[in-house]
Amino acid sequence: MRKLEGLRTIGVTTNGINLARLLPKLKDTGLDLLNISLDSLIPAKYEFIVRRKGFHKVMEGIDKALEMGFNPVKINCVVMRGLNEDEVLDFVALTEKKAIEVRFIEYMPFDGNKWNFKKMVSYQEMLDRIKQQWPALETITTGHADTAKVYKVPGFTGQVGFISSMSDHFCGSCNRLRLTADGNLKVCLFGNSEVSLRDKLRAGASEAELLQIVGVAVGRKKKQHAGMFNLSQMKNRPMILIDCVVLPRAAAAAAKAGLQTAAPISSHEPSARIPSTKPLPAAHHSLRMYHRPSSTQDTCQTKSPGSACTAQLTHTDTQGRANMVDVGGKAPTRREAWARATVLLGAAAFPLLQDNQLAKGDALAVAQLAGIMASKRTATLIPLCHPLPLDHASVSLELDPVRQAAVVTACCRTTGRTGVEMEALTAAAVAALTLYDMCKAVSHDIVITEVQLLRKTGGKQDFQRLP
User: Fold this and answer.
1) Interval 13-58: pLDDT, tens
2) N or C end of the chain, less CB within 10 A?
3) Active-site residue, 437 included
4) Sign (positive/negative) of CA torsion 92, 96, 98, 100?
5) What 3-state class would DSSP assign to 111?
6) pLDDT band for position 183 (50/70/90)?
């Protein structure tokens, strides 16, 4: 690859297990840049994460890279709450004596990684924690197209960076293109559309034709990704099947060649023909497009104003980031809400509940108490709910012999700036779950259903569920 004209750097991302042994030969063949994946500095935790031993080999590889003059050596650390967020300061301390750049990466959703918002630690949270330890932390100026926000502790040899793909995206300045091992071009790491360059090469496409295809693909790139909550529901390759060759200058090359992009291709079609514009040769280029089944979910980012997709959820901003609603400007009012849940107990459990013969005791009384307690803990259970002082909370349970069911009704009231429907729903749901727990020794064929808001008053809009 080093002999290819115009290729400025060659980098590799590695787990570092065999790096110390292979690095001399890799450098001789032209390797310039190193990214080493390392998510923990605790050997036992490292082994748990990667499912193999080798922590000390990775550290040996890092030291070997520094010894051989690689600068900086980048350490990629994906930070996850409950796993390694407690090691952020330890990673920063590693830069004191080593000329490395530790890059903290926000946990991103990909196929198979069971992404959960609660596990994601935002770059701002990490930065605040670091500044508490090192208040003099300095910002380092980076290039326009750099993906990391870079900082340095004064007096330290190395530096730290943040890849804030989820909480503060950098889509507008990103110039990365990726060519996968099976020959598909991805213009966005999080996009599930791919262009097959493999098929064009096998069909004998010239370099100019390939450049045209790349230019058209770049022109179709969206302004920003679909947001982390939408991304978590979309199908996309696992990261291990994406990163192969990174082409950060291909977009610039296309622009330099004077290529203009054609009309967008519908993401609903498995294949499409791109009409060429006047500056392009007369021949059309049929591109084979790859889309995952849920690719329509990312189209809201490009919908025109007034279309159905423009409605915005109140608890996420336009970039899909979690956002607690600011209610400070609202006047306090008296607010009430009623909610209901139905527990279908079945022929085995219902008579025992009705006659108060369950082994665990008075299930109705326990469920009533659990629902009231849960209503007061709603803000703890539901992350973006405001903590509210309740003026009143009640839970009642009625037995329905015809359906062999227990119907839970919850009512909550407050004087405040936001409604209490979540408190009422939480009370009803937890009371229903408590009934399940009290009855499960008799039968597991129990169904919790019809969890719903019945009525709310006192807010901007009242609500009444019709019978």
Assistant:
1) 899 999 999 999 999 989 999 999 999 999 999 998 888 899 999 9
2) C
3) yes
4) positive
5) coil
6) confident
Q: Give CA separation, 341 vs 202, 346, 348, in Å.
A: 60, 16, 20
Closest CA to 61 of 87, 39, 35, 79: 35
Active-site residue (options: 111, 146, 391, 437): 437
Tokens representing residue 54 in the block: 């080798």
Distance CA 88, CA 358 (A): 50
Report the DSSP pairing between strands 149-152 and 11-14.
unpaired
Which amino acid makes up residue 448? Answer: I
Query: Of 412, 411, 419, which Cα lies nearest the Cα of 386?
Result: 419
- Alpha-carbon span 288 to 10, nearest angstrom: 28
d(CA 401, CA 417): 41
Long-range contacts of 456-459, Cβ-Cβ distance < 8 Å, separation of 24 or more: 456/335, 456/336, 456/337, 456/338, 456/419, 456/420, 456/421, 456/424, 457/335, 457/336, 457/337, 458/333, 458/334, 458/335, 458/336, 458/419, 459/333, 459/335, 459/418, 459/419
Q: Are 184 and 236 in contact (CB under 8 A)?
A: no
Pairing of strands 463-464, 447-457: antiparallel
pLDDT tens by residue, 344-369? 999 999 999 998 888 888 999 999 99
In this prediction, residue 35 carries a pLDDT of 92
Q: Whole-model pTM?
A: 0.47
Residue 294 has pLDDT above 60, yes or no: no
| Of residues 280 and 83, more confidently modeled | 83
Q: Do residues 368 and 393 make contact, with C-beta atoms less than 8 angstroms apart?
A: no
User: How far is CA 228 from each of CA 117, 122, 146, 311, 425, rounded to the nearest angstrom?
Assistant: 8, 12, 21, 17, 26
